[in-house]
Amino acid sequence: MTLFRQALRVISPRLLFACGRCRKYSAKTGAIERVIPAFRSVSGDEGVSVGSAVREQHGRDESVHRCRPPDVVVFPRSVDEVSALAKICHHHQLPIIPFGTGTGLEGGVGALQGGVCFSLRKMDQVLDLHQEDFDVMVEPGVTRKGLNSYLRDTGLWFPVDPGADASLCGMAATSASGTNAVRYGTMRENVLNLEVVLVDGTVLHTAGRGRRPRKTSAGYNLTNLFVGSEGTLGIITKATLRLYGVPESMVSAVCSFPSVQSAVDSTVQILQAGVPIARIEFLDDVMINACNRFNNLSYAITPTLFLEFHGSSKSMEEQVSITEEITRDNGGSDFAWAEDEETRGRLWKARHDAWYAALALRPGCQAYSTDVCVPISRLPQIIVETKEDLISNNLTGPIAGHVGDGNFHCIMVLDPNDPDEVQRVHSFTERLARRALAMDGTCTGEHGIGLGKRVLLREEVGPVAIEVMQGLKATLDPENIMNPGKVL
Questions:
Q1: DSSP per position, 71-93
Q2: β-pairing, 407-414 with 116-119?
Q3: 197 with 78: CB under 8 angstroms?
Q4: Residues with Cβ within 8 Å of residue 419, at least 6 apart in sequence
Q5: Helix (H, G, I), strand (E, B) or coil at 143
Q6: DSSP notation for 215-246
Q7: Predicted structure pTM score
């Protein structure tokens, strides 16, 4: 481990330069051709691909960033293979880009400098389930839905739900969250340990091999260093996750409000009353109208909250009663309650289909989701200002958000072939992010930095924090070959 014996030197010009430099790699140099036999000796012929279709598939995610295909895609089947392949890349100084399911929204899988994509889908085993301890270890090819299907008969589930059926290790890499975060937290609160292959092939267990305590005060929090690192510090090959008991009862509701302020006031008061609500989702009038049209629904076209409660049957009565009283005091109306799974599914369909409903407003266009998060009390102001900004700039951007934790999304629907509209959307998203920063918020609540928010990250955390991050990056990856060009 000679690479990691140096102490962290945050202010070292050499380290900062190593982190920031942009090295150019390409198959044209002949390096890829030279290493392919070595890759095949590790993963077999079927575990290595240079086909253009496979490379393009692994050069894009669900974002608006253009495809940046790698020079080669490898499909390791074990941590030993990942380690061996990483050693080869390290020796030849080839960029390494980890790939899960490609559901990211910030261009995090693009091979900006060519190199080698590590597609981890063949590592798809659920390992070491401990029902009595409420934890499980998974490989990077296991998705959120796949894990919950595996847990179906155990009485346990993993509640972090970003919407897409993302890989769990990919969710850890981007610090994903979603609709249940207000009660169950984000990936940061639900990852107990990670197995990570570092740039030189060294295998690290962030909390110690096999460790899975519910809490720890032992040393630096290396686990959370890698949660949210977006593949720039290492390749996550196993994650030990916190599980929860499946609630005895689930009750959902939809409620309309006369204004954004009244909907958010209800949210704050529900949380202040100590109601252990599982989801509080907000849709503005434009989004509700889009969902009505897309799903043939008839919700009132006003600011709307979608709520869900988890607990015992007895506790449900109290939670629902308190919430209904609070929402009515704030002008809430048109309540629709549902308890059975089928009815709850229909009730939540509008929220789950929001992305596709927004796209349907302008067939043939593309969508981009903003991701700011502010203190809950600032939500009414930022949403009102954002809606005014959208209208004055003639932009389509219905709003949906996780108001329970202050995170909301404008789903920007735009014509990518219209340079003027593309520029207006770009300018709007920067104004929105800076509006959130001015309200003590963040430019990204759950999607990550990726390609497009690197400047905003610097504005958000300041130069000292950026220097520390660059120093960490340079210590773990001095030649900048782990997913280069992302985050920093």
A1: SEEE---SHHHHHHHHHHHHHHT
A2: unpaired
A3: no
A4: none
A5: strand
A6: ---SSS-HHHHHTT-TTSS-EEEEEEEE-EEP
A7: 0.91
Q: From CA 95, how far away is CA 90, in angstroms rounded?
A: 8
d(CA 283, CA 415): 23
What is the token pair recorded at 134? Answer: 């409420």
- Ramachandran assignment for 190, one of left (phi > 0), alpha (psi -120 to 50 degrees), beta (any other): alpha
Among 12-21, 66-75, 343-352, whose mean pLDDT is lowest? Answer: 12-21
The distance of Cα 416 from the centroid of its chain, to the nearest Å, equals 24
Instruction: Look at residue 317 in the predicted model and tell me its pLDDT.
Output: 86
Provide the pLDDT for residue 29.
56
pLDDT at residue 5 is higher than 50: no
Q: Assign residue 421 a region: left if phi > 0, alpha if psi is -120 to 50, beta otherwise?
A: alpha
**Torsion-angle region of 134 (φ positive above 0: left; ψ -120 to 50: alpha; else: beta):** left
Helix, coil or strand: residue 416 = coil
Between CA 202 and CA 197 the distance in angstroms is 6
pLDDT computed for residue 106 by the predictor: 95
Beta strands (DSSP E) in 125-197 are 126-130, 135-138, 156-157, 191-197
Tell me how far apart the alpha carbons of residues 396 and 130 are, in angstroms, rounded to a whole number.
47
The pair of three-digit structure tokens given for residue 198, joined into one six-digit string: 């570092």
Say if CB 237 and CB 195 are below 8 A apart: yes
Q: Which CA distances in Å does 4 have to 1, 11, 80, 194?
A: 6, 17, 20, 18
- The 10 Å Cβ neighbour count of residue 416 is 14
Q: For tokens 């529900």, name the residue.
A: 270
Which one, of 291, 290, 352, lies nearest residue 163 by Cα? 352
- Is residue 95 within 8 A of residue 109, CB to CB? The reply is no
SS3 304: strand
**Cα–Cα distance between 138 and 45 in angstroms, integer?**
26
Sheet holding 96-99, edge to edge: 48-49, 72-74, 116-119, 96-99
Distance CA 235, CA 78 (A): 12
In this structure, what token pair is assigned to residue 67? Answer: 């495809």
> Looking at residue 8, what is its pLDDT?
34
Two tokens, residue 78: 């074990």
Beta carbons within 8 Å of 102's beta carbon, 6+ residues apart: 57, 58, 60, 61, 62, 109
